[in-house]
Amino acid sequence: MLKLLQEETPKATWIVKDNKKSLLSGCKPVTLPLSKEDTLVMKKMIDWVRVSQDEKLNTDKELTEAIGIAAPQIGANLNMYYILLPILNEKTDKVTYFEHALINPKISGKSKQIAALKPGEACLSVDKKHEGLVPRSYKIHVSGYDFLKKKHVSLIVRGYEAIVFQHEQDHLEKKIYYHHINKKDPWFKKEDWIII
Ligand SMILES: [Zn+2]
Q1: Which of 7, 168, 173, 191 is an active site residue?
Q2: What CATH number is given to the structural domain containing 27?
Q3: Residue 5 falls within a domain, yes or no?
Q4: How many domains does the chain have?
Q5: Dihedral of the CA atoms 188, 190, 194, 196 (nearest 10)?
Q6: Is 55 among the residues known to form the active site?
């Protein structure tokens, strides 16, 4: 299990829902080195997602299991998000993690190839179900300062990982996944889209 960074236990009530204006009011760039306050925001995001994925710590399922969270979702309108994707090695049964805690992330390149998750997307800040495909770029170039790696990172990601980054980046840019769903025909897809 990944360790927690704060003594305070993450709570479901930390999450700002999409009925609050602040979720869609945009985010400010973050100054490096991080201030104490901004460090706390990042640590709270990391702990929230880590606990949500931990069966022992999230016993009563108080936290909805999450793979990513963006700062405005815990009430801080700052350009930061955290992604934690567990990867199970089926041969060894061991779990490794694809993990990034990005500060001032930028998506600078997007493929024309579109991909979407077969069941659609979901979000911690959205209680109502919004069905439909969310078209995203299949491949992206994302860069930013990684709080955990303590350095600037530049990544090319594809498929599921790329979709997760684009979902979180949306939170910094006044968007939510359902804004991308085709209103007339939610499950509309073009022939060449990759459905994951
Ligand atoms: Zn979300």
Answers
A1: 168
A2: 3.90.45.10
A3: no
A4: 1
A5: 10
A6: no
